[in-house]
Amino acid sequence: MAQPVKGLDFSAAGEAAGRVKKTLQQIGVQPSVVRRVAIVTYEVEMNIVIHARQGTLRTAIAPGRVEVVAEDEGPGIADIEQAMEEGFSTAPDQIREMGFGAGMGLPNIRRCSDELSIVSTIGRGVRMRSVISGW
Question: Which range of residues forms the domain containing residue 42?
């Protein structure tokens, strides 16, 4: 399931994650797994909305695992290790004033993922892959 995400489109923010969650619920995935996948997809979708011009959120559902891949066209992450620290954020003030950009996105993604990889190219974008398994 591939879903486009537009940068700064807060009116549609969360819709892609909501569709993934609904699909998992419909096929009977355990609620604890649905919750983890919903958190990962929402956080990565919001990162695209906040930081990138556009991106794509892809999910692949297989027996016992869900893979989430997000790719964006944005500024990239200069220091991934620092970005993984709770509370660290590069979101502009106007985004923070809206209640977003608290610096919990990547830490939440890491916490909910069984496997996580992030590749960033400054000036080009980010590719993140998360696997949630064990159901």
Answer: 2-133
Cβ contacts of 53 within 8 Å, gap of 6 or more:
7, 72, 73, 74
pLDDT at 88: 96
Mean pLDDT (the chain, rounded): 96
Which amino acid, 70? A
**Torsions phi, psi of 116, nearest 5?**
-145, 130
Our count of domains for the chain comes to 1
Q: Provide the β-strand partners of residue 130.
A: 68, 116
In the predicted structure, residue 135 carries a pLDDT above the cut 80: no
CATH of the domain at 78: 3.30.565.10
Statement: the pTM of the whole predicted model exceeds 0.90: yes
